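WARN no homologs supplied; continuing
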Amino acid sequence: MSTIIYPSPIFGPVHSRRLGISLGINLLPADGKVCSFDCIYCECGFNEDHRPSKPMPTREEVAEQLEKRLMQMTAEGQLPDVLTFAGNGEPTCHPHFPEIIDDTIALRDRFCPKARVSVLSNSTMIHHKSVHDALMKVDNNILKLDTVDPAYINKVDHPNGTFDVSQIIEHMKAFDGHIIIQTMFMRGYIAKSGTGSDVESVDNTSEEYIGPWLKAVKAISPQQVMVYTIDRETPMSGLQKAPRELLDAIRDRVIAEGIPCTASY
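OK structure emitted
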């Protein structure tokens, strides 16, 4: 099993399937993972396997290193398409996330005004007004909604503490359309927790899952939906990519509802 632990606070640029040439901003420690989810498909591995010893970067460190990297990219004539908050866990967990967003927008406007600021988030912190207000300022507010089924979320996303998906959906509605929903579709089987050889499905591509998910998407009325599937090695074995034709069919159903949608394979 291979996993990716990203440098902090700046990494890349990398080529994103969904966003283009992306300069990454990692607000989590450089030597481990800090996340309010513990997804079985996370490219960074499981939380318990990557406990950090270093602190989160400070607001000042993020601004300083981002400015330095953007100055270098400007000199090289290679400006990013997007500045993406991602990395080793949940970026909105950083205590100075709102202030860092303000700093990043100012640096973007100075060095690469055509670039978009994106945040990849699992949605667990959007009930905080400061986080909500910060996300309203970015170009791409990309929030995870893998399903609306609580049992599936507990089995696959492994949220820390209480996670009420119905409340998450209500908080997503509060963005008044300034939101991009990102959903992972996959197939496969994993061992049942606390059992020997018994397995259970992690397939969320059937109508049992897609129908209620689509209903929630319509209620949220996002500016866009991104559906995707596994692209890298996962920390748990037994997971399988969703077929291209299935992702295309889901994409087309979203588009038929008048919502732009892309599918990444």
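Residues 59-76 form the longest helix (18 residues).
OK
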